[in-house]
Design a protein that fits this description.
Blueprint lengths: L4 H29 L4 H14 L2 E6 L7 E5 L5 H7 L4 E6 L8 H7 L3 E3 L4 H16 L3 E4 L31 E12 L2 E2 L16 H9 L4 E7 L3 E2 L6 H36 L1
Length: about 270
Amino acid sequence: MLYSPILSCLRIFPFLVWSVILAFFQVIYHFLLRRNFFLFYKIFFKGLIKIFGIKVNIKGRKFKKNVLFVSNHISYLDIFVLGSSVDGVFVAKSEIESWPIINKLCKLGRTIFVNRNDIVRVKGQMNRITNILKSGYSVILFPEGTSSDGSKVLPFKTSLLGVIEDKGPQEFYIQPLSISYSKLDGIPLEIKFRPFFAWFGNMDLISHVWKFLGLGFSEVNVNFHEPKKFSHFKDRKHAAKYCHDKISSQISSDFQNLEVEKKIRLYEFMLL
């Protein structure tokens, strides 16, 4: 379970090569074909999680289209995990739009950049989310507005959930989903190792990526919870509470299960 700079070196090269190759094909697909937009995008993320040694355990039933997915947010790794599993456009904070290279990849993926503090622009951002849903695509939203260590779900910023209050003739769904990083090399992930996965606060991105690439094989659980029609909720705060409760309950359950598994492993070790 130790960090290996050699493994970081072995992973960084295929990561860069894979990114360049798939970005090239995504550009061609984006400008020339436009149909089945998520094909190369999904292949790109599936390739990344293979290179990074991440196993994604999917639980629950996910809706295919016209869905607003609402998720907790732990790390940039969430993008790779969800991008490999869900056909959806990401909503990202506006700061990312100024990041070199990454901003270009985000724009190829039709990422919606938002500034939740700019009240004037929120309405336009909600309209864009609604238009994407109307076009048959889905949207992935991280309403915490930032990432955390994954031990709990932060309060939701509800402004963009205002899209559910647009009671148009076309019915859309909202589906909460929870992400939790559970194992490293088959061993339940202890709290002291969570900063290797969680990227939050003032952590440096480059050094964090480098250290993560030097870890072994990891597992992440993605739980899709019961979807509800937009019309089920009276307002955005009602929808936010439903999603927050579902995700928080699952994260708490995942942590309890990990503690039980650690005790079982310790007991088995003592019997040897």
